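User: Hi! I have a protein structure encoded as tokens and I'd like to know what sequence might fold into it. I'm fairly new to this, so please keep things simple.
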């Protein structure tokens, strides 16, 4: 069975959750990470927060983007809620066993 685009594309994963020191309030993403008409996310709104985390995790081409926009404490708390391609979830859980351990 052929693999999907999501399974074939490369994804970036930080070496440690400690690297992820992103904001816990409003965020505006650059066009390279999000092409939506409104690039602002209110992280106090769970739907917006989760959508922003999903986009950044899927679309980041550098660990620098992950560090800038993802907050490790928030990530661990919402990890089970995020809708991510299987390949992304496996890579993150394999490399960072911490999110899975908290679930």
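Assistant: Happy to help. Inverse folding works backwards from shape to sequence: for each of the 103 positions I chose a residue that suits the local structure. Here it is:
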């Amino acid at each position: 069975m052929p693999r999907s685009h999501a399974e074939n594309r490369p994804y970036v994963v930080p070496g440690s959750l400690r690297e992820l020191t992103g904001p816990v309030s409003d965020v505006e993403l650059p066009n390279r990470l999000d092409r939506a008409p409104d690039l602002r996310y209110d992280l106090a709104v769970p739907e917006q927060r989760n959508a922003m985390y999903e986009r950044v995790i899927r679309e980041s081409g550098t660990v620098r983007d992950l560090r800038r926009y993802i907050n490790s404490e928030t990530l661990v708390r919402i990890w089970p809620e995020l809708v991510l391609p299987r390949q992304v979830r496996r890579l993150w859980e394999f490399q960072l066993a911490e999110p899975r351990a908290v679930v």
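A useful reference point when you look it over: Residues 5-12+21-90 form one domain. Feel free to ask if any position seems puzzling.
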